[in-house]
Amino acid sequence: MSKVFVNIGLSLDGYMAPEGMTMEDFEYKNWGAKWSALMAWLINQQSFRENLKFGPGGETGPVNDLVRRTMERIGANIMGKRMFDQGERAWPEEAPFHTPVYVLTHEKREPWVRPGGTTFHFVNDGPERALERARESAGSRDIRIAGGADVIQQYLNLGVVDEVEIALAPVLFGGGRRLFEILRESGPLFRIDKVLDGPAATHLRYVRQ
Amino acid sequence: MSKVFVNIGLSLDGYMAPEGMTMEDFEYKNWGAKWSALMAWLINQQSFRENLKFGPGGETGPVNDLVRRTMERIGANIMGKRMFDQGERAWPEEAPFHTPVYVLTHEKREPWVRPGGTTFHFVNDGPERALERARESAGSRDIRIAGGADVIQQYLNLGVVDEVEIALAPVLFGGGRRLFEILRESGPLFRIDKVLDGPAATHLRYVRQ
Fold this sequence. Notes:
homodimer, alpha/beta, 9-stranded mixed beta sheet, 11 strands
């Protein structure tokens, strides 16, 4: 069966996004610099650049292989409405998912088909139903809970997350949206599966035990 | 000059200590099981066992070498009053520091000399003065900010912490005392220096840049 996984960048102090993050003002609370430090490990990887059509070139090596394998395993994505709203303004026309994307929202809206294989489906009947639909469309590939933090927390609290992959970057946000909060379960739920030591982030992979 | 460093165990969700941690009741909020999961990487290392006189044996290898090197580099410790109070009840007569220990407190108390080289000094005039005294006694060795979380935060906020070493354990506490909170500075203050991948914790070493 498909695995359900989370794959995110995290600041050393546990935030997925810095405080004050708004597309309108990169200087606000210094969020642009913090975000850049969080993403520094990724931004120049060949497979990431290729996916966003940044042009040829970019780093190859174990971190790039990790990024490529992650992209290749995804059969469906699930995300929250706030992440979608930010992305709707920021993604290129060919949105960088190339799979069905299930957006958790109260808004009713027809599926939005993008060139390159991404179709956004707007799901009004909750995270469990979104996961069912994602499973149906993913086939033998895996399902990524893309974010934001609140959506990941909902799926952690449903107990359905098989794997958590974290790129832990050496930046302190000092505030923002934390990944691990309001958890229903606690204890040694996960085990360390793999660690890849990159210069700009430490890639931690945990598997539910 | 001596380095000032932090070396702690941290839960995957960023806590140094679980909620409800009290020596009187290990079952309370399941804190005993969480704490055991946090410390699992350390408890059977040879040099840790030796230091606490748990008897011969224990694991050797890179994690044990890390523990030994850490102990050997410390010329003075600094800790908060709550950590001292818990330790006063829990440490063996030969307290496991073997250095001067500066305890931040409002309480006035004569130095408390323990067999084995540990002397607790009670400092009433703030963290900066405690650090000065620790520097005087540490000589060429280093100064460990031992904890708890609030004391580490005070020194992070003074901007004097040169190195942060974290043993990140795959356990979710779901609540408790977070390490990184109430930070005065934020941004890419640290860089990754070393990562050691152990089975029960990932040993992350950050150096101030």
